[in-house]
Write a structure and sequence with these properties.
Blueprint (H helix, E strand, L loop, with lengths): L7 H7 L3 H13 L20 H13 L12 H4 L14 E2 L5 E2 L2 H12 L11 H4 L24 H17 L11 H13 L32 H11 L12 H4 L24 H10 L15
Antiparallel strand pairs: 1-2
The chain binds heme C (2 copies).
The site of one heme C (HEC) has 23 residues, from helix 4 and helix 6.
């Protein structure tokens, strides 16, 4: 196992006996073939995330048993692997002479790329990695199949993750522009049209996203064919839960209906609308998330 150089307190957190039993389980998980896969994501090195800190402090979190707080007394890696098929896939593990699981350097690098895509550098509370396993009352996302592992943001693991994500800001200070504002007017006039319009092989978002926590496209009252300003504001509020300003590829709104080969999430109940990020419609929506598309004049791909 990697030497921990973080504080002794942190060390004890990771050295729980739970790992012993886990090692056995992980063995059976990791003997499965090294999946043949091509990884084409952009490198996040430029986002200022620190790889060394990641390897020393963040990666061990994924190996650690999470006791009674989780749905299963398991580690993240028990579900988040290629074998299990969840989104957020970690690489297969090796075992050292003592039977302890570890990732080789090159697999850690690969994991780093994957994990980096789940965070918004500089913004812990806009980072899915930090929000999925965090209790909803503490600001976490409403839902995580794996359960809630952190009761509050004071949890030592959460704090470590936050320190890692935040430090990206310091590293990038000079290069980083402030998070852009995502324009409401453009959403109202142009983005919402996507919700109503089908595409070959894809039903419109509005067919499914009419209500609930994902209800960004509720039914339009009779006599009208489009949402009014007040309704649009509500829809905007819902959609923004799935948007990380400035980061199209960290925004579920743009990732869920995108083909996994094009960088989308592996699962979406609504299927695929965009095959690749080159899709003109996707491009215009990405420009909106980056803060570039503003106002009420819609570019051609968003005119229906
Ligand atoms: C019991 C299995 C299980 C465990 C253990 C588990 N997860 Fe998950 N996780 C899932 C499943 C299934 C999903 C996809 C469905 C969902 O969003 O809840 C998921 C989704 C996620 C996502 C969203 C990925 C994306 O691309 O949007 C993140 C981030 C995540 N988990 C982090 C973690 C972390 C960190 C841990 C350990 C502290 C963990 N999970 C433990 C099953 C698990
Ligand atoms: C056929 C029904 C259907 C259609 C059409 C559909 N979705 Fe979904 N969508 C779902 C279901 C079911 C889920 C929840 C499970 C999942 O994440 O796959 C979901 C989840 C999502 C999420 C993630 C929400 C979360 O809680 O993590 C986003 C964002 C999303 N959809 C966006 C869209 C967009 C944008 C469109 C249109 C381009 C669309 N969906 C079309 C059914 C649909």
């Amino acid at each position: 196992m990697t030497q921990m150089t973080a504080a002794a307190a942190t060390q004890s957190v990771f050295q729980r006996p739970a790992r012993r039993g886990l090692a056995k389980d992980l063995l059976s998980f990791s003997v499965v073939a090294l999946c043949v896969m091509v990884w084409t994501s952009p490198s996040w090195a430029q986002a200022g995330l620190d790889y060394e800190f990641y390897r020393e402090n963040i990666e061990p979190i994924f190996l650690r048993g999470h006791g009674e707080n989780g749905l299963v007394p398991g580690a993240c890696v028990m579900c988040h692997s290629w074998q299990v098929g969840t989104p957020f896939k970690l690489q297969p593990l090796q075992h050292d002479a003592g039977g302890e699981p570890y990732w080789t350097e090159s697999r850690s690098r690969h994991n780093f790329e994957v994990v980096s895509r789940l965070v918004a550098p500089g913004y812990p509370t806009a980072s899915r990695l930090l929000l999925k396993p965090l209790a909803t009352e503490a600001g976490g996302l409403p839902y995580h199949v794996g359960g809630k592992f952190w009761e509050s943001q004071d949890d030592p693991e959460w704090q470590l993750l936050a320190a890692w994500v935040e430090s990206a800001t310091a590293i990038q200070q000079a290069a980083r522009a402030p998070a852009p504002t995502v324009d409401f007017e453009f959403f109202r006039s142009c983005v919402q049209r996507v919700f109503l319009n089908p595409r070959e092989g894809a039903v419109p978002c509005a067919s499914c996203h009419a209500a609930g926590t994902r209800g960004f496209a509720p039914p339009i009252p009779e006599g009208r064919s489009y949402w009014n300003e007040e309704e649009s504001r509500k829809n905007f509020g819902v959609v923004m839960r799935f948007v990380t300003p400035g980061y199209p590829m960290q925004s579920l709104f743009l990732q869920n209906p995108l083909h996994p080969d094009g960088g989308g999430t592996p699962m979406h109940g609504g299927g695929i609308r965009w095959e690749t990020q080159n899709d003109p419609e996707w491009q215009e929506l990405a420009a909106w998330v980056r803060g570039d598309n503003r106002g009420s004049t819609c570019p051609a791909p968003l005119q229906f």
